[in-house]
Specification:
The protein is of the alpha+beta class. It is built from 4 helices and 6 strands, in the order E-E-E-H-E-H-H-E-E-H. GO terms for molecular function: peroxidase activity.
Length: 159
């Protein structure tokens, strides 16, 4: 696979879409969780989305329950939590796995394209972020502790 555009994913409401829907946009793809110490990053992610969405930037949130069981809810609960607590307007997807034999193919691709520290491929925790260029190729991977605000300059550079 040469880009993310060959992948499909299900939105949080269950609708299946092709990621080529986002062709030509700069994307920040994030594995998220509602009960994590990094959960307040939803606010910063939404701020980035609102600031840059008119410049063809989108955040894509992929809830994941693989780390400390910190995303136990179903799609409706996750969606309600994100909207109520953080006003999330960017696309959220169905809960997925990001590691292991059942990892979503998109995250298999992202991890291979942008390995982590010491070339490790596994996602280490919730709120790992991947910046994807307008061509659908991974530009950079950010660890969970990288705040959305700390990524702002990179986003501006690639817009």
């Amino acid at each position: 696979m040469d880009s993310i555009y060959s992948f499909q994913a299900r939105l949080i409401d269950g609708e299946s879409i092709s990621l080529d829907t986002f062709k030509g946009q700069l994307l920040l793809i994030v594995n998220t969780a509602s009960r994590c110490g990094f959960t307040p990053q939803y606010q910063g992610l939404e701020s980035l989305y609102q600031t840059f969405k008119d410049q063809d930037f989108t955040v894509l949130g992929f809830p994941c329950n693989q780390f400390g069981q910190q995303e136990p809810g179903d799609g409706a609960e996750i969606s309600d939590f994100c909207a109520t607590n953080f006003g999330v307007g960017f696309p959220l997807f169905e809960k997925i796995e990001v590691n292991g034999q059942h990892a979503h193919p998109l995250f298999q691709y992202l991890k291979a394209a942008a390995p982590g520290v010491l070339s490790t491929k596994a996602v280490k925790w919730n709120f790992t972020k991947f910046l994807v260029g307008r061509d659908g190729k991974v530009i950079k991977r950010y660890p969970p502790m990288a705040t959305p605000e700390s990524i702002r300059k990179d986003i501006q550079r690639y817009l």
